[in-house]
Every structure is written in structure tokens, then in C-alpha cells.
């Protein structure tokens, strides 16, 4: 719900917190977001609106900004996932004993300042290193994890929302997706936590572990394969999501379209042509109305008008009052570039 229903812009407030203090040339706290130069609001007017109080920025900053580097979790490219997961590569992390990390290493931790971080070879459950607060993965381990994630995406996707990607499916217990989310399942398949899953630590369905209420369904108990699940060096999906979540998405707005045409005379192809266009879905509807219009006349809709409305209490979804054209065609596409192609490029 937090991911799918809220937008955290990182837009700074004024000192008295009564308005937003942001200029379009300024970097935001989340530097994945930048000013959306394609909107129908000039920068000067936008800044004036932001400084006039909280309401305009609160309701419209998702329209004023664009995400420049979002990653679509429906990707089935191992290299794309590897690039995304490598966002922490070579990053040195502060720890109680000094900096941890180094070249070719990826440090994941769910605490701000861990005592240390353990690689795969130091994950003995009976040693203190397993509890120091961090986990180190190598490039090879990240390649393995990326392959396992792609396997889950192919089996479960496409994901229609971030919650669909993060959470387990509310389906029959016979469905493996009902036990855990895609990332958690990929981690288990990768066996990156295998040193923390010795036979004596394995959890059976009927072991009656204390934090499992007896009325819970038995299949809930199968989610975690080890009693070490959750200790600091045991990699879980939140360890990956915490640093990298601000840039994930379930859809893209940039599309590459290729077209082919030919001239035929008496059944013989005389000429062929190949064309490629790159288009971006914009913020404005086909029939648009200003985001600052006090009243809506005609058939237009504000760019902030949702296609569907969700009743937060019940989760029931209903169609919003969009014009017939906007219901059929949605938002405008902006042509970013067009080029002719050769047959060798196809």
C-alpha cells in the first residue's frame, strides 16, 4: 500500500514548513526525480504555486516531477537485473569497526551502522560474524541471484503493482507464490543462505515455533526454511529492497516502435523501408485540462485525474469520470526521435 498509493517526492519544505521551497534547477533529496519539463506549467509559475502554500505541492508534485532512472521489475533480462542489483557495488559502508566493503563487493545491511558484514564463507550460525549486522555478496553471487529473480519473474509476471511484486500471492496453498514474494523465493532458490540452514536449524511444518499462532494456516510455517531466518547476515528481500526500492516500477513510459513498408509491383517487391521511432508517454491526457483549472469545462481532464479510483477502506476499484476519448486513448505520446534503419539492423 505504501508503494502503490503514496508518492514520496523528496521536495524540500520551507523553514516554517508552510510551503515548498524548491526551484526546478535544484536537486531533490531523491535524485532519481527531476523537473518534468514536458508539463503544461512554466517553471516560474510552478515555483510560485509551490511557495503559495502546501496544497498545490501536496496534490500535484507527482505531476511536476518525472522519474529519470526507474527500473521495471517485470524485466526478464539477467543483465538488467544484475545492473540494478549492483547499485551498491564498491560502496564502503560505515561500521562500528570501520568501513566495510571494497572493490567487487556488495554490502547489504538492514541497520544503519552494523558491527561488520559477513561473506558467504563466514556464515557459521555459532559464530558472532553471522550476527554483526551486514551481508557481503560477490559479483558471482549477484549473477546467481539475478538469474533466480528472472526465473521468478517469468513464472509470476507480469506484476501489475509493486505490492504484487513484493508480497506473496493470496492464492491456494498449493501455489508456491502463496508462500512468499518473488525476491524472497529467488533468494531461497539461490541458496545464498545455505550455511545458515544446517539440518538442526531446519523448521518443520509442525514444530510449533513460538511466534506462530496455532490458528495460522500450516503453509505459513513453510515460508521460512530455517530458524536462522531474520538474523542480521541471513539475506532476506527487505535487505535488497531497502536501498534500491526508490527506483523500482512495474511499467515503463518509453517505447521503441519499428515499422516496415514495401512497394510491390506485379507481385515483385521493388523497395523496402524500415523505420524506428522512440516515443514517451507524457503526463497530459489526449483531451487535457489545466491542473490549476478551478472548474473543468468541455471534455478535458486534469493530468492528475486517475483512471481508476480505489476505496481505501474496502479496496473496491471504480472507473473515474474521464472523457470518452481519454478512456479510450489515455495520455499523449511524445515522439523523441525517428530514424530510418537498414535491414542489417533488424
Number of discrete helical segments: 9
Mean pLDDT, all residues: 82
The largest β sheet comes out as:
3 strands, antiparallel
Strand percentage lies at 15-25%
Distance between the termini: 42 Å
Report helical residue fraction. 10-25%
Give, in spatial order, the strands making up the sheet with the most strands: 7-8-11
Q: What's the number of extended β-strand segments?
A: 11
How would you portray this structure in words?
With 346 residues, the chain is of the alpha+beta class. It has helices at residues 2-5, 43-51, 54-64, 78-85, 139-156, 162-166, 182-190, 237-244, 324-329, and strands at residues 33-35, 65-67, 71-72, 105-109, 134-138, 248-249, 254-265, 268-285, 308-310, 317-319, 331-341. Helix 5 (139-156) crosses helix 7 (182-190).
Task: Summarize this entry quickly.
This protein is α+β, with helices and mostly antiparallel strands. Helix content is 23%, strand content 19%. It is globular and about 70 Å long.
Amino acid at each position: 500500500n505504501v508503494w502503490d498509493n503514496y508518492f514520496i517526492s523528496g521536495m524540500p519544505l520551507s523553514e516554517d514548513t508552510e510551503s515548498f521551497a524548491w526551484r526546478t534547477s535544484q536537486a531533490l533529496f531523491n535524485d532519481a526525480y527531476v523537473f518534468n519539463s514536458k508539463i503544461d506549467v512554466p517553471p516560474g509559475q510552478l515555483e510560485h504555486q509551490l511557495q503559495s502554500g502546501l496544497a498545490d505541492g501536496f496534490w500535484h508534485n507527482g505531476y511536476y516531477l518525472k522519474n529519470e532512472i526507474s527500473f521495471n521489475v517485470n524485466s526478464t533480462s539477467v543483465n538488467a537485473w544484475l545492473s540494478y542489483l549492483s547499485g551498491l557495488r564498491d560502496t564502503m559502508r560505515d561500521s562500528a569497526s570501520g568501513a566495510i566493503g571494497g572493490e567487487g563487493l556488495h554490502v547489504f545491511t538492514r541497520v544503519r551502522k552494523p558491527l561488520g558484514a559477513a561473506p558467504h564463507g563466514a556464515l557459521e550460525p555459532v559464530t558472532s560474524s553471522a550476527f554483526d549486522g551486514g551481508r557481503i555478496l560477490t559479483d558471482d553471487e549477484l549473477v546467481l541471484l539475478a538469474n533466480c529473480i528472472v526465473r521468478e519473474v517469468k513464472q509470476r509476471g507480469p506484476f501489475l503493482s509493486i505490492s504484487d511484486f513484493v508480497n506473496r500471492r493470496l492464492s491456494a496453498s498449493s501455489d508456491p507464490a502463496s508462500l512468499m514474494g518473488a525476491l524472497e523465493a529467488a533468494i531461497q532458490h539461490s541458496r545464498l543462505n545455505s550455511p545458515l540452514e544446517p539440518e538442526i536449524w531446519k523448521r518443520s511444518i509442525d514444530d510449533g515455533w513460538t511466534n506462530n499462532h496455532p490458528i495460522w494456516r500450516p503453509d505459513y510455517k513453510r515460508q521460512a526454511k530455517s530458524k536462522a531466518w531474520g538474523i542480521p547476515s541471513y539475506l532476506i528481500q527487505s535487505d535488497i529492497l531497502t536501498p534500491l526500492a526508490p527506483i523500482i516500477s512495474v511499467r515503463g513510459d518509453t517505447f521503441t516502435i519499428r515499422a516496415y513498408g514495401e512497394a510491390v509491383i506485379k507481385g515483385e517487391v521493388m523497395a523496402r523501408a524500415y523505420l524506428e521511432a522512440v516515443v514517451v508517454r507524457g503526463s497530459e491526457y489526449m483531451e487535457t485540462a489545466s491542473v490549476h483549472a478551478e472548474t473543468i469545462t468541455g471534455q478535458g481532464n486534469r493530468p492528475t485525474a486517475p483512471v481508476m479510483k480505489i476505496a481505501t477502506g474496502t479496496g473496491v476499484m471504480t472507473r473515474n469520470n474521464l472523457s470518452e476519448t481519454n478512456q479510450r486513448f489515455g495520455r499523449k505520446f511524445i515522439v523523441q526521435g525517428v530514424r530510418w534503419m537498414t535491414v542489417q539492423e533488424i
